[in-house]
Specification:
By secondary structure, the protein is of the alpha+beta class. The protein is built from eight helices and four strands; from the N terminus they run ααβαββαβαααα. The protein folds into two domains: 137 residues, no CATH class; 86 residues, 2-Layer Sandwich (Alpha-Beta Plaits).
């Protein structure tokens, strides 16, 4: 079997103080990010903050970088632009922006009007035909934010219950803390870098939680087996190091 990394003998437990310090920084950063998200002060995508999206096609090919530059220069620096593939239609784009002013139906209409005017002004020789438009109001955004929050909470509880039955309650608590730590760390880094938080990011965080759990289960399984082998020696530090290195 192919092994990317051979057998290791790293003293993980001996370096735990450095790991604790780094983890503390990441957890604090993650908690700050979580609070900012809950109070709506983070860089939230239109899935949560509300906004407007339009779909349409250009008459001629257009560089997506030029389109993004036009959006930024026209007062929509947070615009998300995605080129779509539709049967029988070329140069088809999805443009998502946050609404101008208050997030109301009138502001959504104003946003669409401003977008179309900006596109027409920026590309006068390349007609844009709007196919559809959709708006996400603040109530819908709040609902999605609440659902995302409960999805994460239920996922963590599911992890706790699964590990509890697979090993014991102590392992379940440890696995939950480890998984929550990994999610918070990534969330904090995303917030620090100003990355937009949307449903895709939440999906990625839940996927991360799954991979983190898998890795934790493997390590816990090795610890459980090695504790049976080395219990008489009473050297738990060596047992944990051996288990992690394996």
């Amino acid at each position: 079997m192919f092994h990317l990394i051979g057998k290791t003998n790293i003293d993980f437990i001996g370096k735990r103080k450095y790991a604790f310090a780094l983890s503390a920084i990441l957890i604090i950063l993650g908690l700050i990010a979580l609070v900012m998200i809950l109070i709506g002060k983070a860089n939230m995508g239109i899935d949560f903050a509300g906004g407007t999206m339009i779909q349409g096609s250009f008459a001629q090919p257009i560089n997506i970088a030029d389109l993004r530059g036009a959006m930024t220069g026209g007062g929509f620096p947070d615009a998300t632009i995605q080129e779509l593939k539709a049967e029988g239609v070329q140069n088809y784009f999805l443009i998502r922006v946050k609404n101008l002013g208050e997030n109301t139906p009138s502001s959504a209409t104003e946003t669409v009007t401003s977008l179309l005017a900006l596109i027409s002004k920026s590309f006068p020789n390349n007609q844009f035909t709007k196919d559809s438009e959709h708006s996400i109001g603040p109530a819908v955004g709040e609902t999605l934010r609440s659902q995302a929050k409960w999805a994460v909470i239920l996922a963590v509880l599911g992890i706790l219950i699964y590990i509890w039955f697979r090993f014991d309650f102590r392992f379940g608590v440890a696995a939950t803390v480890a998984t929550f730590h990994d999610v918070l760390a990534v969330l904090g880094i995303f917030w620090l870098l100003g990355i937009e938080i949307d449903l895709l990011v939440i999906t990625a965080l839940l996927t991360l939680a799954g991979y983190s759990l898998t890795d934790t289960v493997v390590v816990f399984d090795r610890i459980r087996e090695n504790l049976k082998l080395f219990r008489k020696k009473g050297d738990f530090v060596s047992t944990f190091n051996i288990s992690i290195n394996e």
